[in-house]
Every structure is written in C-alpha cells, then in structure tokens.
Design a protein that fits this description.
- The complex is a heterodimer of chains A (477) and B (89).
- With 477 residues, chain A is of the alpha/beta class.
- Chain A contains 14 helices and eleven strands.
- Chain A has helices spanning 8-16, 22-40, 48-63, 106-113, 156-163, 180-185, 220-230, 274-289, 305-320, 339-350, 353-366, 371-395, 425-430, 459-473, and strands spanning 43-46, 75-79, 117-122, 169-174, 189-192, 212-217, 260-264, 293-297, 398-402, 434-441, 447-454.
- An eleven-stranded mixed sheet of chain A has the order 1-3-2-4-6-5-10-11-9-7-8, sandwiched between helices.
- In chain A, helix 4 (106-113) links the parallel strand 2 and strand 3 (117-122).
- The model of chain A has no long low-confidence stretch (mean pLDDT 97).
- Chain B has 89 residues and is mainly alpha-helical.
- Chain B has three helices and two strands.
- Chain B is flat.
- Classes of the chains: A alpha/beta (477), B mainly alpha (89).
C-alpha cells in the first residue's frame, strides 16, 4: 500500500492530523515514480531535490500553524504547458525542449500558497494538440490500467500520473476535452471550469477562447477541493471573471431530488459503444432513483460542434503559435539564410507534423479568400449552438451524456475518428463547466466516463450531481 | 490555395510531408464544408463567450524584474540583447 493510493483530501487530513509529514508523502510519491514511471512515462521532468526541499518548508509552515488547508503537503503533478518557475516547460515539443519560464502560472502560485508540493511536469500531446499524448516529441505515455492503451490526451501524462499512483492529483488543461477525456480513459474525475473561472496566466496558449486549467483527481471531493484553490480573479488574464461563488466544497451535497437532468439525444447516437451506453444508462437509473427528473430532449445544431471547433481552434492555434520563430526563445535552426529563412527552418524543424498541419489549416481559414466561408461562418454557427444550449438550460440544471464514445484505444491505433471530441467540445465552444466521473468498465476492464455539463458558472450544480452519483455508485476500480 | 497557407504559416515541407499536408487539408476542407448546411443568414458572429466590455489597465510601465532568465532562453544573445540575423540591408 502506498500513500498515493489515498485521495488527496485523505492524505491532506493525515498530514494535518500529524499522522505523517509532507516529506514522507513526497518521498512516497517519488518512490512510486522511480518504481513505475519507466513503464508509464507520465513525467517529462521530476524535481526530486526541489520537491523534498519544498516539502520540508511546507511541513515547517504546517507545524507553525501557518498552513492549515486541506491539501497542504500533498504531492501534485503539473502538465508541462503550465509554468513552474525553476522547472523546464516543454509543451511536449522540441520547440521548447530546454525552455525555462521566468515566472510561475497563477494556478501554480495558488497551489503553492495552499502548501502543494509540486513533484514534476507531466507529458502531453505536443502544444496540447492531440487526444492520445502520442504526439509528444519525447515519448509516449501508457495508460496505467492497460499499458497497451493510450491514457488519452492532451493531458495524458497528468491522468497517467494520478491513475498510476505516482502523485495524489494533477493539473491539466482543456481546450477540446483534454482534461475530461484522459480522466475518463484512466478512471478518474476531471473538471473543466467555466471559461473565466480559473486564470490562464502562465498557461501556454493553444486556443485562447477555449483554454481552461482544471484538476484531474481521484474523486469528486478532491476535485471540488482543488478547484477552490485554483479559482481566483486575476488581472493578468483579461478574461478572468471576479466571482463570489468559488466555494465548491459546499456543493458536495448528496441530494438531487427535483433536479432536472437533460439527455441530449445527439449524445446517445450510434457512435457510442454498447458498453459505454450501458454504463451511462446505469448511471441514469441511479440518479433517477435518487430523485432526479431525467428526460431526453433535442439539442439542435449539436452535430456541427466538431466543425465549428476545428475551424476556430485551428485559427486561434495558428495565431498563438506564430510567436515561435526562433528569435527570443525556443528552437532556432542551426543553418539558415537570412531571418525569413530562420523563421521557416526553425518552425518547420521545431514543430511536429500534427502541430504543423493545424497551423496550416488555421492560416487557411483565416486567409482573406476563406475568412468569410470558414472562420466567420464558424463564429455564427457558434452563436446558434449557444442559443440551443441556453434554451436547454432554461429547462434543465444539467446536461448528461458519455464523456467519450469509446474506451481508451490501443497505442498506435491510427484509426482516429474526428468525431471523437464530439462530446467534450461543446463545453469548450461555449465556456460551460463540465465534469467527468467514472461510471463503469467495459468488457476489457477499461474505464468509462459520465459527463455532466452545466450552465455558465454552475460548477456547484455539476459537482452536486456528480457527488450524489459517485456516493450512490460505490467502488468501480 | 494551400501554398498560400504555407506562406502565412511560415512552414516548409519535404515532398513526403507535402503529400501528408495536402491529404489532411483536402479531407478537412471536405469535412468542414458540411457547415454550409447550416443557415446562418442574419446570425451575428460570436467571437466572445462572455459578452462584456473590453478590459483596460492603467498605462503605467511595469518592467519585468527577471531579465536574466528571459535572456537565458535566447538562442543567441550579446550584451543583454537577443542576437538575430540582419534584417535591414
């Protein structure tokens, strides 16, 4: 038994009650990493000395009564696109393989202020573009529940680190499902906050109108606890919203009587695997038995979500990735002929093919002759989808469906389905909060995720439904 | 059409990569053209999720304190500057 088998909140409680120290917890995490990470490859960098030093400082503050929070002394993994000062930040890319940020992300500072012990940076799809973590320039991460399968992506390293018991929880980022999908594939709880809830300062941008940072955790209680630390108003993020309702642990209420849950028909189509459907239907029954009012409804324009997403995400990515030009930081080619050639060579050599394809598509949809037909069209379609969801939320508290259509595919499976993100992207497109909780296993014992989408800033609502379900569901893994 | 996107992207491709990019672009464009089915006549473009006013700050210079770390990531530097190929003849 390792301390990493406990939830973050359970471990935090033991530390607070002096049953063990932050140093012991950190040493346990590091020991797990040395035992298992050569198999899982969750981490790009592990800061052993730094973590122990940090744990000692945190323990001093716990002893003197300065740090009293629920996660003080608990070891955490951070996705390698979130700045931690003093640690490399690669974004899983050759472009940034030796890059050291000069400041820490606001979410990282929030965690550190709460006494978190950061032990390492986790693997990811290059520049957050991908859904299996296989496009990392460095190595592939394996799903700890079946090492022949992917952990999901782009926050695959974070999910694998938590599922593989290498740390107690991790941070990921979610632009099209990159927290929720790997959490679902690895049997974990992941939450993408409402856009504007959590500061993006210190997160390397992929698609600026979609990106959010959130927890990948063992259960809903951990998730809510971590969210309270992450959420804050930050003037360094122009889209950060000042909210008075960041007390998410108050939402851990075991009661859904009278709550209205909508089943969008589009989320239960033929694309969903039978095992996944069965597990989600069982979850629906559990919630029904707990008093929720659940019914099917038509969510119009849902089928265009993926199209809208791909256009806008590519457009924004091509803009955000234009900063990587070999001038001030990142990869610069060794041989080139003049500055313009330096840009071409550095970018072409520094980025992998998936990133380059995305940049070309983005440039295409933003180019003068295509702007109206694709980019502008997508923005208008987004408005229509927003109206559909607004209409739905007038009637329902929560919209429920599977997080993914399938369980984790095998590593190297090239039969990628563009519709794979269909279930997760609406929440990104419209800035809605969404949570995934495990709801079963398929015939190969691979985890299945249940997704709950809430209205803007209704994290409390989805946390409450998720918590009630989780308590009634019992143990799965 | 596609090479224009390369110019905007500042990316160059080998022959094999070019084929892969062309395949990708052709299949994506075919897929994305489905959006034409949707009637968006008289619909406003939604470029922001959170409607509101632009966020401003005071026009006060705030110099970043850790110049050395910023420069330490430079591919090439000299005397506190980033060194780059000549840009003006």
């Amino acid at each position: 038994m390792s301390l990493m088998d406990l939830t973050a909140v359970q471990l935090g409680k033991m530390i607070r009650e002096k049953e063990l120290t932050a140093v012991e917890a950190t040493e346990d995490a590091l020991s797990q990493i040395s035992l298992y990470d050569s198999t899982y490859h969750s981490f790009i960098s592990v800061d052993e000395d730094g973590a122990i030093k940090r744990a000692k400082k945190v323990q001093e503050k716990i002893d003197s009564g300065i740090l009293t929070g629920p996660l003080a002394g608990v070891p955490v993994g951070i996705k390698d696109n979130l700045f931690v000062k003093g640690m490399k930040n690669t974004c899983g890319s050759k472009m940034l393989k030796d890059f050291y940020p000069a400041y820490s992300a606001t979410t990282v500072l929030n965690l550190e202020a709460a006494g978190a012990v950061i032990i390492g940076k986790t693997n990811m799809d290059e520049c957050s573009i991908g859904s299996t973590t296989e496009s990392s320039a460095f190595f592939t991460t394996k799903n700890p529940l079946d090492i022949e399968c992917v952990p999901g992506g782009s926050s695959g390293g974070s999910a694998a680190a938590v599922a593989g018991k290498e740390c107690s929880y991790a941070l990921g980022s979610d632009t099209g499902g990159s927290i929720r999908q790997p959490a679902a594939f690895c049997g974990l709880t992941g939450l993408k906050p409402s856009y504007g809830r959590v500061s993006r300062y210190g997160l390397v941008a992929y698609a600026s109108s979609f990106d959010q940072i959130g927890p990948i955790s063992r259960d809903v209680t951990d998730c809510a606890t971590i969210m309270e630390i992450l959420a804050s108003y930050d003037e360094n993020d122009s889209m950060s919203i000042k909210r008075e309702d960041n007390n998410f642990t108050k939402a851990l209420i075991n009661d859904v009587r009278g709550m209205k849950i909508g089943l969008a028909k589009g989320f239960f189509g033929t694309g969903v695997e039978p095992d996944v459907k069965a597990a989600v239907f069982s979850a629906i029954e559990i919630l029904r038995n707990k008093g929720a009012i659940i019914e099917e409804f038509d969510l119009s324009n849902l089928e265009y979500g993926v199209h809208i997403y791909h256009i806008i995400a590519a457009a924004e990515a091509s803009s955000n990735l234009a900063r990587f030009d070999g001038v001030n930081y990142g990869y610069r080619s060794k041989e080139f002929d003049g500055y313009n050639d330096m840009y071409y060579k550095s970018r072409s050599q520094g980025f992998g093919m998936d990133v380059k394809k995305k940049i070309v598509l983005g440039s295409f949809v933003l180019s003068a002759e295509n702007y109206e037909k694709y980019y502008k069209k997508a923005l208008k379609a987004r408005k229509l989808l927003n109206e559909s969801f607004s209409k739905a939320f007038k009637k329902y508290d929560v919209i429920l469906g599977p997080t993914t259509a399938t369980t984790a595919p095998k590593l190297g499976d090239k039969s990628s389905n563009i519709m794979g993100d269909y279930y997760t992207i609406p929440a990104n497109l419209l800035g809605l909060p969404a949570i995934t909780v495990p709801c079963g296993l398929d015939s190969m014992n691979l985890p299945i995720g249940l997704q709950l989408i809430g209205n803007h800033f209704q994290e409390s609502t989805i946390i409450r439904v998720a918590y009630t379900y989780e308590q009634a569901r019992g143990e799965i893994l | 059409m596609i090479s224009n996107a390369d110019l905007l992207s500042k990316l160059e491709f080998s022959e094999k990569e070019r084929e892969a990019v062309d395949r990708y672009m052709n299949s994506m464009i075919e897929f994305l053209d489905t959006l034409n089915e949707l009637d968006t006549e008289n619909v406003e473009a939604m470029s922001h999720i959170l409607l509101g006013e632009s966020v401003f700050r005071e026009d006060i210079i705030r110099n970043f304190s850790d110049r050395e770390t910023l420069l330490s990531n430079a591919p090439d530097r000299k005397n506190g500057y980033f060194r780059v190929p000549k840009t003006i003849d």
